[in-house]
Design brief:
single chain; alpha+beta; Transferase(Phosphotransferase), domain 1; three-stranded antiparallel sheet; 9 helices; globular
Length: about 270
């Protein structure tokens, strides 16, 4: 597999000439946000603007084998996120804009890749936004509006053949200035012509699990179902009750797994 290097011209102009090559971007330094399993996420600034770069250096055959043994799909590089962001951009779904992507190497265990995205300014994760809801409930109209928006975001993402695989409140950002929502951290995302039922259940179950402690009522959950399905919840549950029961069961299982009581089955 040959080298792929894509750099947005406007972003390239913010870089010094010596920074525009594959090796230079793989060596780029900045504020480290995360470093694990051959992947490092950094924040840096150029031209007074913030960017994030994820540098993948290969996870090795041992880590690949461990993932497969645990029935988990290993993340082999930045390609998943690059494809997912491209698909979301085509559909006008909120997500960070990709300004550079690179990949080289045929060996999946040692393949190098990176992706650079623009920082989303003045946005807050839904995890942080809803943290105090149990003790300080939000205005009802605002809560309903947010539930509808998240449900529609999830449905639009899935309709584009994208499943997140880490679809939690912490990976949905809301702009402080308006109601715009953005999806982030798509490095494990799947992109297909259509999302298989199994991955729909996992995405929606993950989202439900992450919202279990924020004080949502049964009516709130039914509102989400109605907005996701685009029809009254009674009709949706009459026709697809088994699907939504599977979502709820997945959420409960994931909650137990994260508490250390059940192994992963991804």
């Amino acid at each position: 597999m040959g080298e792929i290097l894509e750099i947005d011209p406007a972003f390239a102009r913010l870089l010094a000439p010596a920074e525009r090559g594959f090796d230079a971007l793989m060596a780029l330094d900045g504020e480290v946000y995360r470093a694990k399993e051959g992947r490092r996420t950094l924040r840096f600034e150029r031209g007074g603007r913030g960017f994030f770069i994820k540098q993948h250096r290969g996870i090795g055959w041992g880590e690949i084998a461990k993932n497969l043994a645990g029935l988990r799909l290993p993340v082999l590089g930045a390609g998943h996120e690059h494809r997912a962001l491209g698909k979301l951009a085509e559909a006008g779904i909120g997500a960070p804009r990709c300004v550079a992507f690179g990949r080289r190497g045929a060996n999946p265990a040692r393949r190098e890749s990176f992706i650079v995205t623009e920082e989303l300014p003045d946005a807050i994760s839904l995890e942080d936004l809803t943290r105090d809801w149990p003790s300080a409930p939000p205005v009802a109209t605002g809560k309903r509006r947010l539930i509808d928006a998240v449900a529609r975001l999830a449905r639009r993402m899935h309709d584009q053949g994208v499943n997140h695989r880490d679809f939690y409140l912490c990976h949905i950002l809301k702009a402080r200035r308006d109601d715009a929502l953005y999806l982030i951290d798509l490095h494990r995302a799947g992109v297909r012509p259509a999302v298989p039922r199994r991955w729909l259940v996992k995405d929606l179950g993950g989202l439900m699990m992450s919202a279990m402690e924020i004080g949502l009522t049964r009516r709130d959950l039914l509102r989400f179902v109605a907005a996701y399905e685009g029809r009254p919840w009674r009709h949706a549950l009459a026709e697809r009750g088994e699907f939504w029961r599977a979502v709820e069961l997945n959420a409960v299982r994931l909650k137990k797994r994260l508490a250390g009581r059940e192994p992963s089955s991804d």
